[in-house]
Design a protein that fits this description.
The chain is 11% helix and 38% strand. By secondary structure, the protein is mainly β.
Length: 204
């Protein structure tokens, strides 16, 4: 650790020579110019600085190593079922039935929102409309995915579908996101030929 020190020590009741006083001042000036942190950033650290055990909460605060290690801000996972799964529920249920598709994402800041995007495939045994949602931590309301493409009305033929939702208000913590589905009609199915992909992004 760099420690400020001066060359000369003065005793009470004795005269101080100007040269000695100037040397002590120069010692302090040299320490400030070469060892202290400078506002303009011109002095580089020679070791790894440590800071408080808390995460940044505003745009211009620096991030500690643990905050960075808890990333990334983006999680993308895929899932394939091991058998034929189906639902005819008119209310949201975990999907695929019997093999729930869920994943975890660590939200790093309380002020941000979570974007969940989903792409998947499946088929119907009658003309139905399948809708999808995510539930966070297995509690509260389902967050319905707004469909940005879909061709899911084929009877007995695999089709693709996708959607997304923006979720505000979640705490800065690890959360579990579970895929949910409901149908308006008879029955929606998936099997081992189908693939699901969920992408979770923390954004402003």
């Amino acid at each position: 650790m760099a420690t400020a020190a001066v060359t000369n020590t003065f005793a009470a009741g004795t005269l101080i020579e100007s040269a000695e006083a100037n040397t002590n001042f120069q010692d302090l000036v040299s320490f400030l110019n070469t060892q202290a942190i400078h506002k303009d950033g011109t002095i580089a650290f020679t070791g790894t600085p440590s800071g408080p055990g808390s995460d940044p909460v505003s745009d211009n605060q620096y991030a500690r190593k643990l905050y960075v290690d808890r990333g990334p801000k983006v999680v993308s996972v895929k899932f394939a079922t091991s058998a034929i799964r189906s639902t005819g529920s008119a209310v949201y249920v975990d999907w695929p039935a019997g093999e729930v598709f869920s994943t975890f994402h660590t939200k790093r800041m309380a002020s941000t929102q979570i974007w969940v995007g989903f792409w998947g495939s499946g088929w119907n045994n009658a003309t139905v409309l399948a809708e999808f949602a995510v539930k966070v931590d297995g509690a509260g309301s389902d967050h319905g995915l707004t469909r940005f493409f879909a061709n899911t009305n084929q009877v007995g033929e695999h089709g693709s579908f996708g959607g997304a939702v923006l979720i505000p208000g979640l705490s800065a913590a690890s959360h579990e996101y579970t895929l949910r589905a409901r149908v308006s009609g008879s029955e929606h199915r998936c099997d081992t030929n189908d693939l699901f992909v969920m992408t979770i992004i923390e954004c402003n």
